[in-house]
Amino acid sequence: LMNVVCFPFQIDVFLARSLLEKLYLFQYPIRPASMTYDDVTHLSAKIKPKQQKVELEMAIDTLNPNYCRSKGEQIALNVDGTCTDETSTYSSKLMDKQTFCSSQAASNVSRYAAAVYKKGELHLTPLHGILQLRPSFTYLDKADAKHREREAANEGGDSSQDEAEDDVKQITVRFSRPETEQARQRRVQSYEFLQKRQAEEHWVHLHYYGLKDSRSEHERQYLYSQGHGLAENTELIKSPSEYLMMLMPPSVEEENDKPMAPSNVLSMAQLRTLPLADQIKILMKNVKVMPFANLMSLLGSGSDSTAVLRCIQQVAMLVQGNWVVKSDVLYPKDTSSPHSGVPAEVLCRGRDFVMWKFTQDRWVVRKEVATVTKLCPEDVKDFLEHMSVARINKGWEFMLPYDEDFVKKHPDIVQRQQMLWMGIQAKLEKVYNLLKEHLTPKKQEAQSARPLLVSGEQRVNMAKAKVKQNYGQLEKEFQKQKAEMKSNDTSGKMDVSSIRIKEEPVSDEEPMDTSAYESLNNGLVNGLHAEDNSTDPLNGHLPGGCIDRVAQELKAFVSSTFKKQFVLTLSELKRLFNLHLASLPPGHTLFSGISDKMLQDMVLDTGCKQILVPFPPQTAASPDELKVYALWEAGDTYDQHRQVLLEIFSKNYRVRRNVIQNQLSQECGEDLNKQEVDRVLK
Known about the structure:
By secondary structure, the chain is of the alpha+beta class. It has 29 helices and 21 strands.
């Protein structure tokens, strides 16, 4: 019993339990004008209780002016044919009835109830099911079957009745194999098996009672609460909130449907409500490969790194300084491959082999993995996609760079993981009978294993850090030398040769970052100071005898550089020139100051030309990077080919190889082979 106050009225609410688990709500479709849902229209009804499936057969008013009689006769003829018997769907040779089949409108109806209001009292009865009735068109299937039977009869009618019996045909008897547990589970969960089970349930025929029938009147009384005394409703002696919870309990299905943890899209708010071990397991299962620094950032600022390290080792293995999720986490016991049906134990061994290969080298060949593990290509591809990226004509490269910071900070973890990998390697040797070539990396890669694990960006950063360490000492020496020169009254000019520039090895193959030199120069123009209040003859204003020597040295540098590179941007040329200055001895004439204009003029004087490459307008390159200079004549046999190639790139910044080869053949009058084209392009 509960009081509901609706100002200015108060209504008593009662819970009727007589029809509990027996009351259904039928939702009929919008009826046509020729059909009425009254006592006469319900011809028959049947139900499958387990499935909560109902079939109602309702009459159609064929005398209604809206009923199309010719169409009804045609449908009856198609379904039953010309003959009528007990099996006929429409005995009156007219479509005079319609079948409705039910489907569940809601899987959970525990929060729905039927209400009856009487004499200031509201009586509620919980619903056991809500069924939507929709027209069934099975009669069309019957019409198609009749049509096929008639066609088969017409085709077989021409055959002779005296035809001899069919020849004896040989049959093959096969014995079915015993069904495994996994095969049985797949069969039980299949759509065909579920359909068969539903069809096996027998129909229970019902009798329909009209609205005004005495039986209906009797059953309708059960919608009212049979006893209003507290003795019969002791379960209602509760607080209002508890009563509402009883009347409308939370949906069990919704709680079950809500995942215990995020799967494809992670909700960080929901994830952080879980224990730390579960958070790490879910993250690693979704991401599969992650550096330790990224994991700490995802877990939040309050996470203890020691606890995280303890948990991560339970669900992941260390590969090249990064954490890769364990195979048994991705493939739990009693599961199988979605591609080949291989059990989880075999999948874990194959994936462990791939992980172990990446501990030996940054590259793995897919064919080698398939040969050793004997798994299908789809499974091998899944393993590789978890932790690597495919590179054309190279293989699969581990997707993350070597995490040197983690390896240096946690040597104990690294040593423990190495011991675990040694144990895994021993197991793999026994299972796969690994050869010596599988266990040891290639010699060339083994000799240069360390550089392979350090990216170019890391090398540049290391070089920058080294320069910054020496910057303070170099600046002090520079200021000391400058003070000594200013104190010398006999000389009014700065002795540039007294500045010592640190010499570092120069590599033609590996580009270097010159930002360190720019910060070291502190306002120098190509290596010399250019202060506003300086009275020194800089920026090209040199004594007459020095100009020729500077021009000769600069021309020699430009000529030798373009004979090696052939094509350079102004930015790259300035970088190479700064490196050249750093390698020169103190007091060299080029330290007298070279401006950008002098450098560009010298490039044009040495037989080079500026190529106006039409770069896209949205490019992020600097102006110096957009200025492209090329050696027009090198004096070799490829001058003409090179000039044709430069003309092509002056019209488009991106050209296909076949277009270049065709253009070279047309302009030069000869067919170039692949090696010659490669040499020109290089």
